[in-house]
Amino acid sequence: MAEFVVAGELVAAVRVVAVPEALDAATWPADATEMRLAPDEVLLLDVLDATAPEPHAIVFPDTGWVRFTLSPDVGAQLFEGAATWPPPSLGFGQGAIAGIPAKVFVEADCWSVVVPAGLASDFEDRLGGVLT
Amino acid sequence: MSGSGEFTFDAVAVPFVPGDHLLTALLRAGLHPTGGGTLCVEGHSPHCVAEVDGVAYVHTCQTLAREGMLVRAQAIGDAPMLPSTDPLAQPVAVRNAHHDVVVIGGGEAGRGAAASIGAPIVDAGDGGEVVGIFPGPMVAVRADAGMVHTHVERVVVATGVLPLLPVCPGNDLAGLYTPKLAERLQAAGVDLGRTVTITEPPQRFEGADRVQAVVVGDERFECDAVIVDIGTTPNDILARMGAGLAVDAVGGASEITAPPPCPTEGTVCPCNETTMAELAECWDRGFTSMELLKRASLAGTGVCQGAVCSPYLQSFIADRTGSLEARFTARPVARQATLSELAAGRHHPAIARTTLHAVHEAAGATMDRFGGWWRPWVYSDVDAECAAVRSAVSIGDVGTLGKFIVSGPDAEAALQRLVPTDVSTIGPGRSRYVLMLDERGYVLDDGMIMREGEGERFFVTVTSGGASVAEMWVRDWTADLDVRWMNVTMSVGAINVTGPRASELLARVGFDQPLAMLRHVEADIADVPCRVVRLSFTGEVSFELHHPCARSAELWRSLLDAGADLGVVPHGLDALSRLRLEKGHIIVGQDSDYDSTPRRLGHDWMVDLDSGDFIGRHAIERTGRLPLDKQLVGLEGDGPPPFEGAVVWSMDGTYAGYVTSAAWSVTLGRSVMLAWVRTVDGMLPDEVRVEGMVARRAELPFYDPEGVRARG
After folding, report:
1. How far is B541 from chain A (nearest CA, A)?
2. In the predicted model, is pLDDT for residue A119 greater than 70?
3. What pLDDT sits at residue B80?
4. Does A122 touch chain B (CB under 8 A)?
5. Looking at chain B, which residue has its C-alpha nearest residue A40?
6. Residue contact A116–B352, C-beta within 8 A
7. Residues 6 or more apart whose Cβ sits within 8 Å of residue B574
8. N or C: which end of chain B has fewer CB within 10 A?
9. DSSP 8-state assignment for residue B430
């Protein structure tokens, strides 16, 4: 069972930009949580490195993300109070939450909300306002 | 249900009994919220609005009376007083709901539609008052616990019909009720006196303030109240509000009904007090369509959004053209909404923080917002910070720079297209200061291009705050090329180490290899993996240390610790701005204007017309043949620095331009400025006047013109 925290934590991540077909065909470390940010961009959480899926791919160990781990109840409450888009039933989604660009990965027993580190402080403040 | 009690209406105590709406209690007390006009129960007649507990435009027919309510009369056509208290002091909660379809209206048609498609119903009777339909579509609903924003694929409006309100002389008298309201009032024990029910449009109502008689056809009926039962009209405000959105109307709200007979006299739009005569005048002036008539006469632009007048506007036009025009578009909101309700769920744009933010605050820095980032403006003494840069060593947080990694077979071609320089000559491990131009040849941004290794891979920086625009720009312009872009602005930290002892400081933290100007190399600094870039914005030896942003604080502390005896102190943006000004370096967006070409900026040396085709090239070539009309120049004076934006006057007193940057240079002992100055007969003036001070035009840079110090 994941530990639920309302405070954000820097997350180990790797971001990869490559041609979409290469990303489609790529395999990532088994522990990675895959977030497909765009057809040509993927964010992998909980890994420190990844194999380039094509010769010109950009593989970037990225320390610029902060993760908020939420229980499903709290996650749903957050979306209800602060997101104009519905959360995915399972898996990845992205959009603004409380006005902050956010990525979310929904699993049966926990929700990961990931925001750029530079906006994490604002996000945390706003999260507090929503989850009261 | 509310209990018995009292509320006040313009300081008059008004008793109410359980279940009373404000309107019922007011009428029982012989009071009319707005003085007169036909009243209904649907919340669409503008004649019942009042200010309730500081909220204007509240329909008293829809609002249950509660003990202690403060109700004030509100003239329909006048703007209400602004709230005397902070309208946002009480934030309103918002709940977001998502459905495929939502049905507005719980009547027969609404229930039928909801049952057939399995959609939820929003109905005022259930405490969900629809305030408006917004793009999305999103239905904003006022509920007891706050606002509910219902995001849907489609909206079904099933709001039924409204009673037609009469338009004739005297329709602004008190004592005029729709049948439903009369029924409600009678059930509540309100004595209406002698009532007359009319089922066809009257010629006129008679009376002073209250109705005393009504004339229908050739007959005149004396009375104390008139029950106006002259037909219905579609309640289609929300459907009209959804024009262009996935909004359908069903039932009465969707009916195309024949308009009522066209009145000849009376107030047609009570919200704006537009009369039939004024409609005719607008028509005669050429406003001969529904939308034009609305704009010219203002009929339909008030509180009720045409609930009263739109059927009559239709009949007015049909009388003159023989055809039935559709009603005009309605705009949100359909009900009064407070600023708190409108602000529910909204947030200010977030201001980003570098990972050094807490370090700056702990050091006592005054933080301020620049280019979408919180940045340290000054730590304690800007002069001391400048002095540290000029005489020892200092560090600054430049993690706010826009940063991109560019890769791919066409990476060089992509950059070649974006900047007016020959990118092919930027060798591995080298970098170049470049401009980014728009199609008009105006400077859009500036930054550095660094080539990594031998391949087609680059690292690019742009100004702080320019990253998101730059990202859109470069992606758009290179979409046809085999190139990959990664925006790493928020992921890569950057610390500027600058001053004559910068190399000495870096040597103490593990970087002791020589690095020539505009070269870069990867190296560990204090065990933090960095890209070390040799450049200079301050005019002194400088190194930018690009690194994983999570390790910024560790790197910052190591530099301060290692350089303590060298006199290292951090510098803020104020110091950086002064130092770069002494060197004549521009800040795009501050010193550049919307029409700044490289030539006007004095940066035409950065444009290589032999470098192939680049964005803005043709404009540069064309405008380059024109005489120079103005230029960004250096000015210096002996008085205090003017404020940025100060007007530059020629010595004969004519306008010559304005100051973009100004500071007192402790190093040089005079004020230095960058300013836009117009040419006269192709010449720039040698002297101008700024805030009464004679300022001399000076060659740039003001400081170390040979660049000896920056090269080290």
Report:
1. 29
2. yes
3. 66
4. yes
5. B484
6. yes
7. B377, B378, B382, B385
8. N
9. B
Q: Flag whether residue A84 sits within 8 Å of chain B, measured between CB atoms.
A: yes
Q: Which of B328, B302, B150, B131 is nearest to B240 (CA)?
A: B328
A17, A63, A79 ranked by CB distance to B96: nearest: A79
Choosing among A80, A125, A127, which should be mutated to test the B contact, i.e. which has the most B CBs within 10 A? A80
| Contact residues, chain A, for B149 at CB < 8 Å | 84
When divided into structural domains, chain B yields a total of 5
Report the first-to-last Cα separation within chain A, whole angstroms: 24
Contact state of B484 with A18 under an 8 Å Cβ cutoff: yes
Which residues fall within 8 angstroms of residue A38, CB to CB, at 6 or more apart?
A: none
Is residue A131 very low, low, confident or very high in pLDDT (cuts 50, 70, 90)? confident
Nearest CB partner across the interface for A121, out of B96, B353, B548: B353
Domain ranges, residue B377: 352-580
How many helical (H) and strand (E) elements, i.e. helices and strands, does chain B have? 17, 41
Interface contact A119-B550, CB threshold 8 A: no
CB within 8 Å: B350 and A18: no
> At which of B258, B276, B307 does a domain end?
B258
pLDDT tens digits, one per residue of B417-452: 999 999 999 999 999 999 999 999 999 999 999 999
- CATH number at B193 reads 3.10.20.30
Whether residue A12 lies within 8 A of chain B, CB to CB, comes out as no
- Listed as ranges, residues in chain B with pLDDT below 70 are 1-2, 76-89
- Residue linked to tokens 């990225």: A62
State the pLDDT at residue B294.
Answer: 95
B344 lies in a domain? no
Q: What is the pLDDT of residue B78?
A: 67
Q: Is the peptide bond before B103 cis (omega within 30 degrees of 0)?
A: no
Residue A27 is predicted with a pLDDT of 95
Structure tokens at B203: 């010629």
Amino acid identity for residue B510 in this structure: G
pLDDT of residue B528: 98
Is residue B555 within 8 A of residue B545, CB to CB? The reply is yes
Looking at the fold, whether B96 and B222 belong to one and the same domain comes out as: no
User: How high is the pLDDT of residue B86?
Assistant: 65
- Asked whether the beta carbons of residue A99 and residue B490 sit closer than 8 angstroms, the reply is no
Tell me which chain A residues have a C-beta less than 8 angstroms from the C-beta of B345.
81-82, 84
CATH number at residue B552: 3.30.1360.120
Whether B280 and B382 map to the same domain: the answer is no
A residues 31..60 contacting B (CB < 8 A) = 40-41, 56-58, 60
| Mutation for testing the B interface, residue in A11, A19, A56 having most B CBs under 10 Å | A56
Query: And the tokens for B161?
Result: 């019909």
CA-closest candidate to residue B311, choices B278, B263, B272, B244: B263
Given an 8 Å threshold on Cβ–Cβ distance, is B354 in contact with A118? yes
Residues B429 and B501 in one domain: yes
Distances (CA, A) of B160 to B109, B239, B252, B254, B374: 8, 11, 4, 8, 53
Is B347 close to A123, i.e. CB distance below 8 A? no
CB atoms within 10 A of CB B179: 15
Cβ burial of B233 (10 Å; 0-12, 13-18, 19+) is buried
Cis before B169 (ω within 30)? no
Burial class (CB in 10 A: 0-12, 13-18, 19+), B480: exposed
Q: Tell me the nearest-neighbour CA distance from B347 into chain A, angstroms.
A: 6
